[in-house]
Design brief:
alpha/beta; 8-stranded parallel beta sheet; globular; single chain; disordered N terminus; 10 helices; Arginase, Chain A; 336 residues
Length: 336
């Protein structure tokens, strides 16, 4: 079994080292409880959604219409939908620089900034990112109150304080954490990022912050080229499938929660580890992705940690597959 590379956490050097050197070494196989085909008792979830989440990108590899399609898929399942307000400038400034926010909102981004962002500017695009940040904040509030909630949007983990990257302009997850910390609703949070791409913006924003623990499991040889160290980075080789992925994810999550006691788990639930994803190179099945979600949610529930889900990436050749994967994440979250 391949081992993972890890950083040694908040109180040690923030360098990625080979397992078995000066970082953590984890070996052996662990059992993964499978939920395939099993009937599960479910609860009503708070699902956060706004029609303005669609960035209206047209013919683009990022299918931003998926947010609407996921909502439509879940409408008949009895959950409660809530509409967020956009995050205020005051809230955005908890994470981002004023110049970046101003240029994003006014449409005065430099050409180099747009190239790095990889999506065209429009007022609707700028508004969508502010709505997503408001939505993740609202979902986090409901998670603290009810144990679990989900934003049918967000997860824009490549955004940095003063620039955007990889379809991400505002780091909604960081805004939500900082807002709840400012209101003294939480002190400590963990971000568990299962998108196929490393959460570089997350790692950079929280690099020197002992109150937020960051874990990213991702394809090593994929975007972003430079990966600032998270507290735990699980670097996967190309083509990893369900079994190895689930073993290494379980090891990493148990290790993180053995060292850190969060009051909130922010789960960045990318659909792009899927074997048919256009921007990914892993080989997970739709069933394996459900096992992934159930694994993380089960560990958090046993520890009494509230769970807030955001969506992140998903670029399957058939957009219906991305919709299925991320609707399934909501179904797994609703299981008791």
């Amino acid at each position: 079994m391949r081992r993972f590379h890890a950083t040694a956490g908040k109180r040690a050097a923030s360098t990625r080292v080979s397992s078995g050197a000066h970082g953590w070494s984890v070996g052996g196989r662990t059992g993964v409880r499978r939920g395939r085909g099993a009937l599960q008792e479910t609860k009503v979830l708070k699902l956060i959604y706004h029609e303005g989440y669609d960035l209206n990108l047209g013919a683009h590899v990022f299918p931003s219409q998926k947010f609407r399609l996921i909502r439509e898929r879940l409408l008949s399942e009895g959950h409660e939908f809530q509409e967020p307000e956009p995050a205020s400038d005051e809230d955005l400034l908890l994470v981002h620089g004023r110049g970046w926010i101003t240029r994003l909102k006014q449409g005065t981004l430099h050409e180099a900034e747009l190239q790095r962002l990889e999506i065209p500017w429009s007022q609707r695009m700028a508004d969508a990112f502010c709505l997503a940040a408001g939505g993740s904040t609202l979902a986090a509030r409901y998670a603290l109150r009810e144990g679990a909630a989900m934003n049918i949007g967000g997860g824009f983990h490549h955004a940095y304080p003063n620039h955007g990257e990889g379809f991400c302009a505002i780091h909604d997850v960081a805004v939500a954490i900082r807002k709840l910390q400012r209101e003294r609703l939480i002190e400590r949070a963990i971000v568990i990022d299962v998108d196929v791409h490393q959460g570089n913006g997350t790692a950079a924003i929280f690099a020197s912050d002992p109150s937020v623990f960051t874990l990213s499991i991702h394809q090593l040889h994929n975007y972003p080229q430079y990966k600032p160290p998270s507290d735990i980075d699980v670097d996967l080789e190309d083509g990893v499938g369900d079994e190895e992925y689930l073993e290494r994810l379980e090891e990493a999550v148990e290790m993180a929660l053995g060292r850190f006691d969060p009051q909130l788990l922010m789960y960045v639930a990318g659909a792009d580890p899927y074997k048919e994803d256009q921007l990914g190179g892993l080989a997970l099945t739709i069933e394996g992705l459900m096992d992934r979600d159930r694994l993380v949610f089960g560990i958090a529930r046993r520890r009494g940690i509230p769970i807030c889900v955001t969506l992140a990436g998903g670029y399957a050749r058939r957009v219906e597959d991305t919709v299925t994967i991320q609707a399934n994440t909501a179904r797994c979250l609703a299981e008791k």
